[in-house]
C-alpha cells in the first residue's frame, strides 16, 4: 500500500492507461503546461508528448465535440472540463451528442469518452464555481456518472471509465484533491456500478457520495455511542448499485441520503424513488435527505458555510431517523 | 474537366437518386399521415444535390462525413444503401440506424457516414474528432462536415474553425447556403454577403462556389480535399444554393415566388445533364435509361421499407450501452 | 367562456401583456415570419412591429444572453427556444447567468425574463427533439419553472410569468398546443406557485403535470368504479405548492407521481423527498412514480410508444398503490 | 490631444487607484490565507490599467459595462466605490454585492456596472442586452464589454458579434489581449495575429491598439463610443497588453522571464506619467501628492473592509428572489 493524494491517484490512473493503450489521449484547458489547474495531468505532456496531451483554447464546446468525434473514430479521449460549472458551455456536446449517438445510430457508433471535471463548494469561489451537478448528468440516459470519494476509488474508477466503451462523466471534488488514502502498489480496477460499504452498522443507513462520504463517516463516528451507522458510497450514480442500498435499508430500516448538491431536485430523489419502489416496507422511519440550501452559492465565507450541508446536518438527520 | 465519362455519369446518377429518394420519402410520409401516423421531421435535399455529390466524389469509404438535419443527400452521395435509408424513414428494424434514428440520424460508419444531427451546427465540433484521429494516427483520411448557412450563426461553428485552423486538422467545412433557415431569410441572419472571410479571419482558406454547378463544386472540393490529405489543413467552402421545397413537410412555404422561379432555372440536375449531352458524355438514350433505373431502384427501396417489420417494442433499450 | 387551443391561449397572453407594457418584447427564431414554428407568436409582428418581435439568427446563446441583459436593463423579454432540447446550446445563459445574477449582485440586478420553450415526445422526432427537461431547470436555484396542462393555465401562468421579476422557464408541450379548453372572456391570471386539484377523489392522489395531467384524468376516469382518484397539477414546479400535495396525501394516504420525463432522476424524486420529509406517516402504501423509460427517445413509432409513459402505466400504478 | 489637464490627471489617478487597489487586495488575500481562510479567486488587473481607464473615460453613469473575471479595473474606472469593492473581497455585508458576489461579481447598476463574470466569455452575450434596450427605447446609451483574448475563443462571443453587427447595436467589445489565458500562451489559442479581421468578417469595424498607451486607447474608444452613440453600430477593439502578475493568486508564474521584463518596460502608468510631465500637465509635486492620496484612500478602504461585519449567516437566502 502507498498513501497518496487523490490528485496523485488520478494522475497514476491516466498515466497507466495512456501507457497501456495508445488510443488514450488527454484534452482540455491548461492540461499540458500546468497539468490542469488542479495538477491532475501534471507531468503527462513531458512523458507522453503534447500530441497526446492536447492543451486547448477556451472552447469547451469545440474540444468536447472533438473528443466525442474522436471517440466515434475509435480513440479514447479523456476530456477535462476545468469546473463542472463550465459544462454549461458544452452541454449540447454532452447531453445531445455523447449521450445519444450510440443509441441513435442503432448501436453502430460507440463513444468511449471520459469527461473529467471537478465540482463542489467550500472555497469561496461563488455561484459560478461551486455547483454540484451530478443530478443533471444522471437524468440523461446514455451517460454513466462516476463520483469517487477516496484516492483508491478515484484511481480504480477512472481506469475503468477509460476502458469503458460508453461516455462516462467523472466528477471529482475540489476539496478532495489533497486528501490522502491508501492504494495498492499493483494495478487494480474499481468496476463502474458497484457500491461500497464504507462503514458497517445496524441502525441507520447513510448513502453518501463524493465529499459527503467523509462527512458521513465523521457523523457516524461522532454518534457511535448512540447509533450504529452504516455508510454506503454508491461510487457511481449511473449505473447505480441499488441492490447494495436496498440490502442495507432492509437491515436497518432507516435511511439518510447525503448530497452536497442543493436539496431541491438532487440525485437523492432518485434513490428515494427506488427505495419506495423496491423496499418501502422495510422502512421503519421516514427517510431523510441532507443537502445544501437551494440558493446560488454565496461568496462570503460566512454565508457559504451556512449554505453547505455538512457533518452537522448529517448528524441531525441520523438522530431524527433513529429516534 | 478531365473526369472520365463513367465518373461523370455516376455523379449524375447519384444526383438523380437523391432527387428521386426525396420524392419517394415524401410519398411515404404522406401515406403515414393518411393513416394518422406522423413520421417526424423530413427535410428535403432537392435542389442541393450538386453539393453532396460534388464533394463526396473525392471521398473514400474511410473518409468521414458529418451531416445535418437535411442529410439524405449526404448519405446517398457517401454511398449509403437507399433501401436501408428508406426503411429508416418508416422506423423499421431494417433501417440504416435500426429505426432508432429516423431521417435526421442516419449512420453507416463502415462507409464513414457519421450521422446527421438534429441540433443545428451540432456536427461542426464532432467533425473535428475523426480529423484529429487521422492526424493522431498519421493516416491521410479526411473529414467533411455539411451544414446550412443558418448553422453558421452558431457559436460552436466558430470554435470549430479556430481549432481546425490552429491544429491544421484535415477537415472540410461545407456550408450549404440555401438562403433560408426555416422561415428566416439570410438577410435576417448574416450582416455580410459571404462566409469565406470568416474562415480567413481564423487563418484558414475560404472558398465561395456556385452550389448548383456540379463541376464547380467538384473542383473546389478537390482542392480542399487535396489540401487536407496532404496535411495542409482545413478549408471552408461556401456553396450558394437553394432548396426546392419548404423547410420541412409541416412548415408551409414562406419564400417569394419570383425567387423560387429564378432558382428553379438553375436546377443543378438539368444543368449538368445539358452539359453532359453537349460534351457527348451521355446520350439521350443513356440519360433516359439512367432515370428509369434510378426510379426502379427507389420504387424497390420504398417497397422494401413498407414491407420491413417494425422493431420489437420490447427491444426499445437495445443499442443503448456498448 | 371561450373554447380555445393552447396555442391561442398563449398567443393571447403575450398579446395582452405586450399591449399592457411597452417593455415586453418577443425574441427567438422564426418568431416574426411564421409566429414560431408552432405559431404561438403568430400575428404579433404585424400588430406590434418587428422591433418588438425580434426574429433572430440561429444563435440561442447570443439571443438568450441578449434577453438576460435586456432584462437586467429593465425590459421584459419573452425569449423563445424552439425545442427544449436546444436549450443545451444556451445552458450557460440560463443556469449560470439568468438564474444567478440577482443573487450574485446582492439583489441589485433583477432578471424579469420568460424563457418559453416546448418539450415532450410523441411525434417521432427522435432523441434530440423529444426530451422533457423540467428536472434540470428545477434543480437550479434562481429559476422558476411553469409547466401548464390546459389553455386556461397556459394563459394565466404566462401572464403571471411575464409580470414576475424573476427568470421563469415556461415549458409547453408540443402535443398540447392543439388541445382545447375554456377560458374566460375577461382578463385573468394564474399565480405561480399554486397547484390545482384537477379532479377530486378520496382513495389515491395522483400528482401530474403537463401532458400527464390529461393522461392521469383519463386513468382516473377509467378506474372510477374501483378507485376514487384525486388528480393534482402543481402547474409550477418552482415554486412548488407542496401544501396542496401534502393535503391530498394526508387525505388519501396513497400517492402516484406521473411525469413524462424519463424515470431515473426526474422531478418526481423531489416530490418524494418532500413527502418523506413532511407527510411520510400519512402514507399507507409505497408511493409510485410513473415515467418514460430511461433511454434516448427512439425514432420508430413502435419503439417510441413503448418508451413513453402513458395512461396505461398510470392505471397500473394507481391499481398497485390502491391494492 | 485636446483633453484638459484635470481630465488627464483624473485618468492617471484612476490608473493609480487600480494599481494600488490590487496591491491591497493581495495583502488582504494573504492575511486571509494566514488564518486559514481561502478567499476564492483573485485576478489582478495590474499592467492593464490603461484599457479600462481609457475606455471608461468616455462613458456616462447611464452607460453600461460588462466585466470579466479580471474586473477590478473596470469597476474602478467606471466609478465604483473602492471601499465597497474591498469589503466585497472579504465577503462583508458592506460589500459592493453585499458579500454575495466576491471578486468576480461586482455590481453597481446605478453607475452602469453590470458585473463581472466567472464564465470566460459569459458577459459577451449579456452586453447585447442593454445595447438592445437603448436602441429599443431610443436612447443614446452605449454598452462596453471587456474580455480577454482567451474568451475570444468562445463560440458565444462570435454569435454576439454577429448579432451586434446585424442589428447595429450600440455595443463596444474590448478584447484585453494580454497574450496569456491562465497558463496557455496565445500561440496555443489563436492561429492568427489579430482579432480585428474577425470583426470585419461579421461586417463591423475592428481596431487594434496598444493597450499600454492610455492615449491610444482613449482615442480608439472615443471613436467607437462616438459611433455607437450616433447609432452607427458596434465596434471591436483589440488592445494588446500584458498582466504583471500570474493568472491568479494560486497559480504560479508560467511566463518566460524575458517576456515579462520586456513588458515591464511598457508599464502604462510610468509611460503616461512621463508624458504628462513632459507636457507640463502635472508637476513632480502634484504627482507625488496624487500617489499619496491614492495610497491613503486605499488604506482606508482596506481598513473599512477589515472592520465591516460579515453578513448574518441566517440571511443566506436574502436577495434570491425579486
Ligand atoms: C440548435 C438548434 N436551433 C434550432 C433548431 C431548429 N431548426 C432546425 S433546421 C433549422 C434551420 C436550419 O437552417 P440552415 O442551417 O440554413 O439549414 P437548412 O435547413 O437551410 O438546410 C432550424 C432553425 C435546431 N434543430 N437546432
Ligand atoms: C467557460 C470557462 N472556461 C474556463 C474558465 C477558467 N478560466 C478562468 S480565467 C481563464 C483564462 C482567461 O483568459 P483570458 O480570457 O485571456 O483573460 P485573462 O485571464 O488573460 O485576463 C480560464 C481558462 C472559465 N472561468 N470559464
Ligand atoms: Mg439554409
Ligand atoms: Mg488573456
Radius of gyration of chain B: 19 Å
**Which assembly state applies to the chains in this document?**
heterotetramer
The N- and C-terminal alpha carbons of chain B lie at a distance of: 47 Å
Tell me, what's the shape of chain B? globular
Question: How would you explain this protein's 3D organization?
Answer:
- The complex is a heterotetramer, with 2 copies of chain A (about 325 residues) and 2 copies of chain B (about 325 residues).
- Chain A is α/β, with parallel strands linked by helices and about 325 residues long.
- Chain A has 2 domains: about 1-185, Rossmann fold, CATH 3.40.50.970; about 195-320, Rossmann fold, CATH 3.40.50.920.
- Chain A contains 12 helices and 14 strands.
- Chain A has helices spanning about 5-20, 45-50, 60-70, 90-100, 100-105, 135-140, 150-165, 210-220, 240-250, 270-280, 300-305, 310-320; strands at about 1-5, 25-30, 55, 75-80, 115-120, 145, 170-175, 180-185, 195-200, 205-210, 230-235, 235-240, 255-260, 290.
- In chain A, the strands form 3 sheets. In chain A, strands 3-2-4-5-7-6-12 form a 7-stranded mixed β-sheet, with helices on both faces. Chain A has a 5-stranded mixed β-sheet with strand order 9-11-10-13-14, with helices on both faces. Chain A has a two-stranded antiparallel sheet with strand order 1-8.
- The longest helix of chain A is centred in the N-terminal third of the chain and has 15 residues, at about 5-20.
- The radius of gyration of chain A is 19 Å and the shape is globular.
- The termini of chain A are far apart.
- The model of chain A has no long low-confidence stretch (mean pLDDT about 100).
- Chain B is α/β, with parallel strands linked by helices.
- Chain B has one domain: Rossmann fold.
- Chain B has helices at about 5-35, 50-55, 70-75, 80-90, 125, 130-135, 155-165, 195-200, 215-230, 255-265, 270-280, 285-305; strands at about 65, 145-150, 170-175, 180, 185, 205-210, 235-240.
- In chain B, strand 2, helix 7 (about 155-165) and strand 3 (about 170-175) form a beta-alpha-beta unit.
- In chain B, helix 1 (about 5-35) packs across helix 2 (about 50-55) and helix 4 packs across helix 12.
- The mean pLDDT of chain B is about 95.
- The chains are: A alpha/beta (about 325), B alpha/beta (about 325).
- Chains in contact: A-B, A-C, A-D, B-C, B-D, C-D.
- The interface of A and B includes residues 25 and 71 of A.
- Bound molecules: thiamine diphosphate (TPP) (2 copies) and magnesium ion (MG) (2 copies).
- One magnesium ion binds near residues 148, 150 and 181 of chain D.
